[in-house]
């Protein structure tokens, strides 16, 4: 299969210097004087990057299967997106950024319906737009708290009491008998703003020194691989996890009004659970009147071979909210139940409330994904890649452990006994790949990643483990 856009990207990677090379080192030293560079992965020349390939100032060009932490949908300098960016509509959106809640553009309904809402998860027909994954989650949590309180208070028309308003101003008990919480799972990642950080449980470094809410965490099932050989144990782990969720819903001293879950725990190390587990989670949350928020910030937009990863679960009862960001370039949460809109304006509000320019970009992304049928293509490329990785894992079982993501598009990962060295060597051999959790190598290619790119990747992986 040839590239989707003729002549757009190079045939393969080029490594000219060590990375960082001399030019990068000089530029990094200059940058470090004014900007913390300690998390820097690679100084990037975005003008010279194209398609699946990321370039640096030293002329190195790497196959990029990390893609700005899983956030580039259609490749660097995608011609279709560049065209959308040059439109009058985009220019107007960029230079006339609205305070969206107060001054929505006259055609905002059309922009939403032809873009963000065109790909809305089944059963969810409204959206609250936001700016990043963390704030998509936080605003979803706020919607959950307000929904639950409104319900307990007797409905949207019941006025707040004087006592409630006074205690709110004192950061005190919100006038009700008990605080509420959001339940998340151990090793989950839902962002780093104050509220979202309390549901993030992947690494202490994210959380140290930051005041956090006393919210419950359930154990995410730790599946054993290969799945076929551990079916019974894995089913038992999933059942134990669901039992724990129910126990926490009923007994945690600060009752949860919502459970938030990633379809595949991504930052936490690519931890999967079965569709049956998630159906069980939907059932137990529904049974107890607790909302289910599915965090599709990393899994959304096709990488798992479905537009939304939760489509793999075959739910008859949709999640209450689905949050998105990353490859969407914009962010927010989808919902269906009108009661998830708070009873009064300004309760869920900020200046930007998202960004129409980014919403236009998302629409152009969706157009391209549909035109090129990239979700089905990603499913097929993922199957191809997974099959070949299984072959490598059979030859080098110690180097490719717990290979996971079968049938989940290109959302594939494995554990490496020398993960950080693996990532470094990959870079030196022309592949930019990321890690997650303690030992996972996670693949997050773009939706334009094809079999030919997979072959390049596999050759590099084979070289890493055989030399
Ligand atoms: C599942 C998930 N949720 C939320 C976030 C936070 O998104 P952001 O970094 O855009 O705030 C991330 C980021 O990696 C994520 O993977």
TrEMBL record:
Its cofactor is pyridoxal 5'-phosphate. InterPro entries: 4NH2But_aminotransferase_euk, Aminotrans_3, Aminotrans_3_PPA_site, PyrdxlP-dep_Trfase, PyrdxlP-dep_Trfase_major, PyrdxlP-dep_Trfase_small. Gene3D superfamilies: Aspartate Aminotransferase, domain 1, Type I PLP-dependent aspartate aminotransferase-like (Major domain). CDD domains: OAT_like. It comes from the Eukaryota. GO terms for biological process: gamma-aminobutyric acid catabolic process. GO terms for cellular component: mitochondrion. GO terms for molecular function: 4-aminobutyrate:2-oxoglutarate transaminase activity; pyridoxal phosphate binding. Keywords: Aminotransferase, Pyridoxal phosphate, Transferase. Its EC number is 2.6.1.19. PROSITE patterns: AA_TRANSFER_CLASS_3. Belongs to the class-III pyridoxal-phosphate-dependent aminotransferase family. This is 4-aminobutyrate aminotransferase.
């Amino acid at each position: 299969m040839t590239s989707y856009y003729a002549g757009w990207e190079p045939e393969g990677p080029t490594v000219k210097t060590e990375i960082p090379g001399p030019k990068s080192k000089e530029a990094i030293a200059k940058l470090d004087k004014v900007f913390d560079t300690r998390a820097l992965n690679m100084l990037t020349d975005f003008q010279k990057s194209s398609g699946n390939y990321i370039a640096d100032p030293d002329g190195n060009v790497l196959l990029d299967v990390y893609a700005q932490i899983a956030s580039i949908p259609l490749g660097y300098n995608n011609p279709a997106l560049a065209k959308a960016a040059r439109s009058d509509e985009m220019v107007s959106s960029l230079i006339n950024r609205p305070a969206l809640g107060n001054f929505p553009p006259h055609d905002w309904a059309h922009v939403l319906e032809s873009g963000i809402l065109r790909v809305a998860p089944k059963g969810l027909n409204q959206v609250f737009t936001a700016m990043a994954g963390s704030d998509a989650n936080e605003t979803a949590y706020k919607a959950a708290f307000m929904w639950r309180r409104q319900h307990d208070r007797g409905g949207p028309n019941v006025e707040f009491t004087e006592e409630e308003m006074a205690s709110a101003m004192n950061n005190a008990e919100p006038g009700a008998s008990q605080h509420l919480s959001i339940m998340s799972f151990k090793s989950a990642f839902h962002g780093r703003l104050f509220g979202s950080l309390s549901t993030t449980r992947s690494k202490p470094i994210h959380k140290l020194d930051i005041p956090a809410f006393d919210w419950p965490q359930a154990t995410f099932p730790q599946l054993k691989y290969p799945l076929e050989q551990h079916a019974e144990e894995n089913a038992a782990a999933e059942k134990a996890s669901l039992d724990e969720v129910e126990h926490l819903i009923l007994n945690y001293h600060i009752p949860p009004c919502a459970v938030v879950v990633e379809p595949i725990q991504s930052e936490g190390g690519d931890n999967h659970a079965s569709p049956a587990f998630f159906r069980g989670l939907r059932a137990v949350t529904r049974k107890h009147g607790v909302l289910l928020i599915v965090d599709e910030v990393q899994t959304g937009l096709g990488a798992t071979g479905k537009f939304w990863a939760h489509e793999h679960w075959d739910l008859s009862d949709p999640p209450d909210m689905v949050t998105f960001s990353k490859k969407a370039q914009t962010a927010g949460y989808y919902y269906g139940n009108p009661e998830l809109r708070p009873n009064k304006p300004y309760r869920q509000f900020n200046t930007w409330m998202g960004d129409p320019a980014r919403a236009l970009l998302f629409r152009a992304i969706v157009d391209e994904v549909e035109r090129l049928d990239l979700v089905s293509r990603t499913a097929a490329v993922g199957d191809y890649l997974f099959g070949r990785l299984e072959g490598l894992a059979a030859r080098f079982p110690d180097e490719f452990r717990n290979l996971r993501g079968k049938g989940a598009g290109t959302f594939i990962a494995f554990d490496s006994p020398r993960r950080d060295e693996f990532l470094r060597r990959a870079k030196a051999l022309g592949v930019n790949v990321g890690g997650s959790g303690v030992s996972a190598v996670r693949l997050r290619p773009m939706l334009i990643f094809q079999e030919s790119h997979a072959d390049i990747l596999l050759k590099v992986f084979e070289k890493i483990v055989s030399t």
